[in-house]
Amino acid sequence: MKKFFLNSELIIPLVLGLFSMSYIGGTGFYYLGFTNIDWFISGVSDSDLETHWLGWNFFRNSPLMQFPLLANYTYGQGLDISLVHTDSIPLLGLIFKPFAEYLPKNFQYFGLWILISNILHSIFAFKLTRLYSKDLVICSLITLFFLFAPIFYMRIFAQPAIGSQWLILGAIFLYSLNKINYKEWIIFLVLSVLINVYLFIMVFLFFTIFLLRIYLEKLVSFLDISKVFIVAVTILFSLMWLLGYFSVGMGLQEGGFGFYKMNLNSFFDPKALYELHSKILPDLSSPSVETHGDYEGFAFPGIGVLISSCIAILFLIFRNNISTRKNFLLPLLIMSIFLFIFSVSNKISLGNNVLIEYPIPFFLEWFTDLLRSSARFIWPVYYLMYLGTFYVLIKSMSIKNLRYLLIALFVLQVYDTSLATDAIRNRMVNYDQHWGREEKWTYPIKNDIWKTFSNRYKKIIYVLPENKPKRYFPLAMYASNNNMITNFGYFSRRDLKKELEIKNNLKESVINSDFDLDSIYCFQDDELWEIVKKNSQPNDYLGVIDNYRIFVPNFYN
Predict the structure, then answer these.
(1) What is the average pLDDT across 184-198?
(2) How does residue 254 score in pLDDT terms, banded at 50, 70 and 90?
(3) What is the DSSP letter of 270?
(4) pTM above the 0.90 mark?
(5) How sure is the predictor about 538, in pLDDT bands with cuts at 50, 70 and 90?
(6) Which of 21, 366, 452, 496 is 20 to 30 A from 358, comparing alpha carbons?
(7) Residue 94, C-beta contacts closer than 8 angstroms, at least 6 positions apart
(8) How many whole angstroms separate alpha carbon 70 and alpha carbon 88?
(9) What is the DSSP string of 181-211?
(10) CB 26 within 8 A of CB 428
(11) Where are the domains of the chain?
(12) Which string of DSSP letters, residue by residue, matches 308-370?
């Protein structure tokens, strides 16, 4: 036990992970408090973490044993939503679910996941580097570059599930090992299924090219890897079915391919995500985040890594003394080319200009509709570029010179990205004034009549429901805290046909005054509000409560 805790292979990445998290996220660690939720609630602008938490807060009230396991039927009733469709980190949801009865109100685990992910990101970066260098100083410095990778810290503090990019590093690590490790791959694939579907697909791609690699190296036969592949796919699809990945049916193919794409300037300080990312490089003209989805492809590596890449390229050109393993690199190259093409989509753009646009072959539309945020698939290429750059430097420079170079470039990287890291730190520390707020967030559901509603009624019906309706969060929070059902929410996927059917049926019921007596109706639609005002009866409740237009049928009986 003592040897385990004194192991430098564990201690060093642990310290580095905590350091980077403290530097970027601040030392207050308010977000680690299990009942602190105001650090991610906007109240004014958008925060994806709101629905991530709502997904969990509804899920904790669902039956322990159900099918699918992650079914979340009370959040968006009729849409067959599961916990995966709110990006609520199903792994932690399943771990904490048996204890839901004993957990405090407003319990959240996303701060914990930020801590876990920073440490695991550090561990896998360190383990990767140790494959190519025995020098602990060099390995530590390279690990810091991975921890200060802009695509990592920009995601992990705002979207913890998709920010779990240590899964990519772990997949690269497993691929790089000189052994056949099917068991480790299956465990890692199952783990990724329980975290985020995009990251799972990336890990699965690495697993696929790993099988190709060991076949090319003549370590196994084609028949053997075919069997392994079929078994893995069977296990994974069975697990996804059991969890509820496919519960929304055709809603999985929601579309959006070509909108959430990578811009060709994404590696060079694009303006698409934040205008403040590099102090040194000019912001490159990019489409607005309000009208385009190019921000999803943000892939600025930091000026320290850009300079490192240039130096590495020069070494390759003028020295060319790096030994290569063709069968090791070829699968990585094939995958990287495929992912780059997929991430830029069928609308190849540079800045504000679309250079080339071509139609998607009809037989591929199901696939592109399924993975609409294609820009994210540049991430494996991004981290392979990181690793390849540092590998060349390790093989081309003396330990002493490389140490000095990495120290200088890391300091430059931290300085260059300090506007962005300062903004994140300010958001995480000054949580009373962020996400567009100017003061501490307070729960807007204040009127005492809400207590009466929660005691007497089972549902809150939003008229008319849509994905992420206006001011939905406080109402959904109220419903989840009182074990009520909603017909609305904010979901990554939903069946659009079902949604339209629900809206049409609800509209007809309002027009015909055919209301559920166990439901509270919240009206956003002006026309239908006027209709219900006109047709309401003396026993009905009709009024504006905390800026919500509320109708409750037969309330005074």
Answers:
(1) 96
(2) low
(3) B
(4) yes
(5) very high
(6) 496
(7) 69, 70, 194
(8) 10
(9) -HHHHHHHHHHHHTT-HHHHHHHHHHHHHHH
(10) yes
(11) 66-91+443-557, 149-247, 253-396
(12) HHHHHHHHHHHT------HHHHHHHHHHHHHHHHHHHTTEEEETTEEEEE-PPPGGGHHHHHH
